[in-house]
Amino acid sequence: MVNCWNLIPERMYFASVITELELLSYSSLCSEEEEKISQFLEEITVVELNSEIKKMTILIRRTHNIKPPDAIIMATAQSLEAKIFSNDTQMAKISNHDIIPLLLK
Predict the structure, then answer these.
(1) pLDDT (tens digit, 9 = 90+) per residue, 8-62?
(2) Is the Cα dihedral 100, 97, 68, 75 positive or negative?
(3) CB-CB neighbours of 102 under 10 Å
């Protein structure tokens, strides 16, 4: 598993509740990996859905025709005026959002 803190500069970080769900729902996740992910999530702020994020999600989906989870993640970042670190190539193609490619092997 990649140590994410070695890849990104020290700042305040957020994650959408969707990211939390995605990270913890991998079927092949062992207990050690789950513990590391849980520790990582405890060190950042996990942002729940609110009415502002829901409205932004709808607009993003209408504009870019992307999957709901990706639209929620983008809307969450937009609501916080935050950059997105992602290894999602489809998301990285959307030019009007500040998306930083995070290439993981």
Answers:
(1) 566 788 999 999 999 999 999 999 999 999 999 999 999 999 999 999 999 999 9
(2) positive
(3) 15
The H or E element spanning position 60 is helix 51-64
Among candidates 56, 57, 47, which has minimal Cα distance to 17?
Answer: 47
Q: Which residue has the tokens 């992910």?
A: 37
**Global confidence as pTM:** 0.80
Under 8 Å CB-to-CB from 100, ≥6 apart: which residues?
83, 84, 85, 86
CA–CA separation, 46 and 20 (whole Å): 7
CATH class of segment(s) 13-101: alpha beta
Spatial distance between the Cα atoms of 80 and 12, rounded to a whole number of angstroms: 11
Instruction: Tell me what pLDDT residue 10 has.
Output: 65
